Amino acid sequence: MVGVDVSERMLERARQLTADERLENVTYELGDAQVHRFDPARFDVAISRFGTMFFSDPAAAFANVATALRPAARLVLLVWQPHDRNDCATAIDAALGDAAQPPQPGADPFSLGDPGTTAGVLEGAGFDDIRFEDVHEPVFYGADVKAALAVVRGFQDTAAALAGLSEGEADLAVARLRAMLAAHYGDDRGVALDARSWLITAQRGTR
After folding, report:
1. Which residues, in sequence order, are CB contacts of 16 under 8 Å at separation 6+?
2. pLDDT beyond 70 at 207
3. Domain count of the chain?
4. Could you give the strand order of the β-sheet that contains 69-80, starting from the edge strand earlier in sequence?
5. What is the pTM of this model?
6. Residue 109 near residue 54 (C-beta atoms within 8 A)
């Protein structure tokens, strides 16, 4: 197995977890899956968990991934459904109010949320038997409100929105965020917000 990521920090974490599990058949490479030179037709499956939404050129990226797969090999993706179906995003935007900022190009976590559009991209890249399975599970932000607020304030979009406000306005926005997170707190699981994603499966075409 080969893991590829653009972040050396993420790769180091993956290597640590691999070592902890005493797995010896996994290697990691620093690279961008959109353009990484994979060995042609080497793999039986390609898996991504909340990563492919950030491809700047999805058509070219999935075509590149397809070249690494053997005919009839599987593609398995977990991606967010559209923004308006994810309370974990809309609740934060509502708390930020007018300061909430749209995703930057190439940084939209919901870019693969429309099944029709995404299926078309995958078909064009050489995949068929494309299926979408609804996954309705919450997102956990922390064991308590303080931890959850630190996580949410660390999001790039949230930080940018707060940076664009005056000190007083930012304090009010943070207070709204804290109240929103407190409303989603439960003793049994900490702070959790509703979320929906797609489990996408497809097969590399044999042609």
Report:
1. none
2. no
3. 1
4. 43-49, 69-80, 196-204, 127-136
5. 0.86
6. yes
